[in-house]
Amino acid sequence: MLTQEENELICRVGPGTPMGNLFREYWLPAMLTEEVPDPDSDPVRILMLGEQLIAFRDTNGKVGLIQNNCPHRGASLFFGRNEEAGLRCVYHGWKFDVAGHCIDMPNEPAESDFKSKVKALAYPTIERGGIVWAYLGPRQAPPPLPDLEGNVLPGAQAWAYQQSANWFQVLEGHIDTAHVSFLHYGGIQPEDVPPGTFSEYQLRQRSAHFEVIDTEGGASYAARRPAYDGTAYWRVAQWIFPAFSMAPPGVLGLGKRNACEVPLDDHHTITYQMSVSRGRPGGNGPNASMNPIPMQPRTTDWYGRYQPMVQPDNDFLIDRTVQRENRGSAGYTGINGIAMQDAAITSSMGPIYDRRQEHLGTSDAMVIRVRRRLIAAIRAHMQNGTVPPGVDTPEAYRVRSGGVLLPEGADWVEATRELRTAFVEHKDLDPALNGPL
Fold it and tell me: For the whole prediction, is pTM greater than 0.70?
């Protein structure tokens, strides 16, 4: 369990907090490209790490991320006119480019040079793989973007959804493989899936033996279950600083995907999913084929982006009849969809759970390791200015997750080294080995 001080250290992310400062060392997803679809399209409110910002795509197609309040008298730039390569405040006409420079000040005399002395806070952005990345940190020259297959390779796409929970509660759900056999697949039996697949091994023994290692960019865990004929089934997954995760479904060596938890504030999180896999039906908007979660109509308030239809206030539309029947992927919980089953659990803990109340077991080995690494990195950064892992090493993100069969007694770390390495093709691997789960 964490002490109250440690819990606050990890979970609080606002400006000036130790965790907030750590987050700001990294490039982070700020929004999807689809949110600012065209040059001079509508500005968008972006809440990120507790900071209110306004995003806009200028006439030249460049995305700006600028402070909410105009530097003149504090009017919100959300109401600004996005025109002629800048965002113009409608209060007095001051206009700012994507770098925050004031490029027009029509209420001042023509001979005045006052506009050259005024600059709005603006953060660098880069678009890649359907995501607008932003750097909110202190460096004049930002570090490189992380080398994430799901965001780098041709065909990379992204989708997002918001949850009413602290970012770390959401992340811990994504690095916890033990819950999958219950929360997501408790209503499915081994005989319901093809024999000899990873799905069968996972259902035949719902508990597992866990091993965790440190990696260059974070940590990796492997969960072992018995298979057939002297082999063992291993589920290998990744966490990379500060909030990236790679879940283990699929065949190790084939999956090119990751998630990232971005805190809006201490109590709200947007999860960005990135992959080069084919889209799935559902959702709405330009990336509708990628988003499997039915969404509410988008609104313009600070929390109006990517809100699922199912929410805590409608009990995630739990169907108690389905739950009693306990059949299929929704049967165990009565809640449809893996992501929303996770969301129901993480939000049910409250905005920030008091982890002094926990009783952790052997299956929580990865959760424990990630907490230790995060706390050590936060304290080193806070006390000594130590650069956190992964900031200057984009190659630390070149990892993969998934399942693999190994001989009993094999060293999984050595045996999977190549399969865990990203940007390597394995054409001999069969995705059908995973089965339907």
Answer: yes
